[in-house]
Amino acid sequence: MRVLILVNAPAIVERWEGEAASDRGVEHAATAVRSALERRGHQVVPLLVGADPGPLLRAVHEFKPDAVFNLCETIGGNSRLEAAVPFLLRWLKVPCTGNTPEALVLLLDKICTKRLLRDVGLPTPPFAALYDSRGLDGWQDWPAILKPSTEDASLGIDFGSVVYDVEAAKDRFELLFDRFGLPVLIERYIDGRELNVAILATEDGLRFGINEIDYSDLPPDRPKILTYDAKWSEESEEFMKTPVKAPAILEPALDAEVRKLAATAFSALDLRGYARLDLRVDADGKPWILELNPNPDIAPDTGFVKSLPQMGLTYDDAIEQIVRTALKSK
């Protein structure tokens, strides 16, 4: 089988310190995916995708791939164009891995996603869309966390993201507005355990792996959140002091509830292929959905990949499964 692997070119202008690190993470994933597919005997060609779609069109015409393994998260550094690649591939009638372009558009917008989760009865922390700082005057859920509404990879998240009063929230709003535009998301900060649920669609149904972010080594004056540096800056304190515990050790009732939430969210939002659900568990033991990540990072050192033994799969098995799902969806 011929597989074309697509990787987004790095952002030209950095809006957040170290932003290029997440682009390097995608390149790391592409190298691992290529090796896995080649070990299975497939013919693989990688392609860097930038602002000009011409090279992609030529590659599809000349290589004639049976499937495209899509790892593009931005176009020219613009995450709002993430869905452009799968839309283009649909037009060209080429099977593409991962979630549909409609799902990518939906889930990139954190505010829209949370509205849908709320509308289908799934628990998500109270939130609001901020278009100016005056929108904070009536906010009562403290502490709160502010995030860019249409970015992924934890862009815009650092220890200053958690705020405890209106004045601090207004300062944070101005920073995010300046770097990432409007709207800005504010939601109640859930101080508790953080769980990540890896979800993989297979011929036998959905498979799950549940991991936990271990915040026990963070200084007590730091909020327990996974910052951008914690994900991407291997030399940072945040990275070294927020390891992934795989698997998470949960009481049976909580384990069952988390799996049910993951399956319900995957179905309700019409997802396909693979995804990751991020949750917090409050002091009363109630899980709250923070967000759903379609096409999450699948580099070998990521939480998703660390979940594969819980699913009874190797890395090569999972990559092959993702391609098979794409072929069945064409």
Number of strands: 12
Rg result:
19 Å
Report strand %: 15-25%
- The level 1 CATH classification of the largest domain is Alpha Beta
**Domains, number:** 3
- Could you give the order of the helices and strands? EHEHEHHHEEEHEEEHHEHEEHHH
Q: Judging from the principal axes of the Cα atoms, what is the shape? A: globular
- What's the rounded overall pLDDT mean? 95
- Characterize the biggest β-sheet: 5 strands, antiparallel
What oligomeric state do these chains adopt?
A: single chain
What strand order characterises the main sheet? 10-9-8-11-12
Please name the fourth-level CATH homologous superfamily of the largest domain.
ATP-grasp fold, B domain
End-to-end C-alpha gap: 15 Å
CATH 2nd-level architecture of the largest domain: 2-Layer Sandwich
| Unreliable stretches covering 5 or more consecutive residues | none
Helix content: 25-40%
Q: How many helical stretches?
A: 12
